[in-house]
Amino acid sequence: MRSNFATYLLLGCFLFLAATVSAQSEKQKELEEQRQSILQEIKQINSLLFKTRKEEKSVLTQVEDLEQRISATENLIRVTNRQANLLTREINDNLTKIDNLRTELKELKEDYAAMINKSYKSKSQQSRVMFLLSSESFLQAYKRLQYMKQYAKHRKEQGESIKEKTAQLQQLNKDLISQKSKKEELIAQNRKTKNELAKEKKDQQALVASLKKDEGKFATQIRQKQRKADEIDRQIDKLIREAIAKSNKASGNKVDNTRESTFALNAEAKELAANFTSNKGKLPWPITKGGVVVKKYGKHRHPQLPNVTTFNSGVEIATEKGAKARAIFKGVVLEIQQLKGANKAIYIQHGNYITVYNNLAGVTVKKGDNVGTKQELGTVFSNPATGKTTMKFLIYQNTKRMNPADWIFKM
Fold first, then answer.
1. How far apart (Å, rounded) are the C-alpha atoms in residues 245 and 240?
2. In this structure, are residues 377 and 332 in contact, taking their beta carbons and an 8 Å threshold?
3. DSSP secondary structure letter of residue 174
4. pTM of the model
5. Which helix (H) or strand (E) holds 58?
6. Do 148 and 128 form a contact (C-beta atoms < 8 A)?
7. What is the CB neighbour count within 10 angstroms for residue 105?
8. What number of other Cβ atoms are within 10 A of residue 60's Cβ?
């Protein structure tokens, strides 16, 4: 009974250890994917935001671009630290396993040596044949033969176990060397990244100091940009309300206070909306060549001008020159709008959801077209003054704005 309990306990410990190792391995893989993703983001930031000369940028733009790169770099350092810490735990676990294996191997070898010694002494006293022939009965001879077979089998199993434990020990030692090398590499990379970050922050401080000298002027510039953005948002909101009212009227639904902000959907549109909802968090990027989010959704306090607050109704994505806007889901082109004081915007309806692709130089679809997921819609506008190519992307459920980061995969 006690032997069975010990066996179950040992098996339980083994399974727990295996599960721990597997979980750590999966976590390490996840962290490495995050690190590579951040490295790619930094590469894009450098390519998309820092390809123009500093003298061609306003101080405010330089500060915003540096803030973007500093934020990504700090994130990289955090993830790399987590990787290094996880590797430390894995190394410690391996050291413990190596100690345990060495102890087991030592005991196995001692047991095996004693068995060989006993076997040798037994052979010197009498041969196996004599041992069998000296049996008093056939049953006793049979039992002795079985004993000899079991003994030989046990010796073979012990030998195989020693071989297996030795191989495990050698593999663990190899893993340990690899883990230590990986940890040293991560620490070296982090040290280099921290030095780069310190230089970036020094440059940022110099720029912020110049910002502070004319804080009022820069605050005014930001507020002017916000007023312009608010005016464009009002145009978008108005068009969506009018489109809902027109759609409901055409479908025979009376437009009243409860209906003017909600699409009246038929069975097909309801199914489309349900499919859109079920893909939340898995929808593709709205730009063909990818990019980096330079302005997130929602209300934000300016990091260097604390008295200035901005609001973004969607996300602004910096991308490569010539990049195309693409539909994130199948739907119908609700409207193509030339916004006052801005460029073209395309509205795609997906049941009671609407996606808006703003700041396009040209479009390749027309109102009423059915579009498929990832279908190209038009070319993103490149600003000749700044050299930047940016698109603003919005998602609405009826007239309610949604955070695109909740819907787009890894945004």
1. 9
2. no
3. H
4. 0.71
5. none
6. yes
7. 17
8. 20
